């Protein structure tokens, strides 16, 4: 059994509803209503990618009180165009995962929202290893998970690729703990994530 599995992918933006409208037009589907993360002063819109994984559009919530710690996904320093910034892996044993993954994955914080209860490992600086391109680690508690509760509109993740100058090192650190071909690691001078989604509007590449 693998220590990790892909849980969701995250796209960051500066203005949530504007970015959601653009994304909905591109994909031909609607995103779920807005959700808030009070602890981190962020808010999001979600989209089902099947029964086990989902897509998250996330931004700083301008109406929330700023946290006394850096926000996850290094959102405090995010600027520019809406883009894929993070991949999030789930584990059933956060302690073991953090002991076997590279240093700097973060310290678990416990969170709840509605019926959901989870732990997310968040670095003290807000920046994950490999300049933010390592996955974030999450452990869900109980049976509640966002993916099966989202409306299934037939959108599916066809592939997820991480392009990075240290692609080989990233693969050595994480691929061994994941199901085969969960993510492709490709050497590139410029780091970025690419996700190919099958949608009602055809195959769409997000990056």
Summarize the structure.
The chain is built from four helices and twelve strands. It is mainly beta.
Q: Care to describe what's here?
A:
The chain is mainly beta. 15% of the residues lie in helices and 38% in strands. It is built from four helices and twelve strands; from the N terminus they run E-H-E-E-E-E-H-E-E-E-H-E-H-E-E-E. The strands form two sheets. An eight-stranded mixed sheet has the order 2-3-4-1-5-8-7-6. The relative contact order is 0.21.
What percent strand?
35-45%
Large-scale geometry = globular
SSE pattern: EHEEEEHEEEHEHEEE
Structural class: mainly beta
What is the strand and helix layout of this fold?
Layout: E1 5-12, H1 16-27, E2 35-37, E3 42-48, E4 54-60, E5 83-90, H2 94-100, E6 107-113, E7 116-122, E8 136-141, H3 146-149, E9 156-164, H4 167-174, E10 184-187, E11 192-199, E12 202-206
Keywords, please?
mainly beta; 4 helices; eight-stranded mixed beta sheet; 12 strands; 207 residues; 38% strand; single chain
């Amino acid at each position: 059994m693998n220590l990790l599995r892909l849980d969701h992918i995250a796209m960051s933006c500066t203005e949530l509803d504007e970015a959601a409208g653009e994304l909905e037009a591109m994909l031909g589907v609607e995103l779920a209503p807005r959700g808030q993360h009070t602890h981190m002063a962020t808010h999001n819109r979600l989209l089902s990618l099947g029964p086990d994984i989902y897509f998250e559009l996330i931004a700083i919530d301008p109406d929330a009180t700023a946290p006394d710690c850096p926000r996850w996904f290094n959102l405090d320093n995010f600027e520019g165009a809406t883009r894929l910034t993070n991949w999030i892996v789930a584990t059933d044993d956060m302690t073991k995962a953090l002991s076997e993954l590279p240093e700097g994955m973060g310290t678990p914080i416990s969170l709840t929202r509605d019926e959901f209860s989870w732990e997310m490992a968040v670095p003290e600086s807000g920046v994950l290893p490999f300049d933010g391109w390592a996955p974030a680690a999450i452990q869900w508690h109980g049976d509640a998970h966002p993916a099966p509760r989202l409306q299934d509109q037939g959108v599916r993740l066809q592939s997820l690729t991480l392009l990075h100058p240290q692609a080989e090192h990233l693969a050595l650190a994480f691929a061994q703990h994941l199901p085969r071909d969960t993510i492709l690691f490709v050497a590139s001078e410029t780091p970025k994530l690419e996700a190919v989604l099958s949608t009602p509007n055809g195959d769409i590449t997000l990056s």
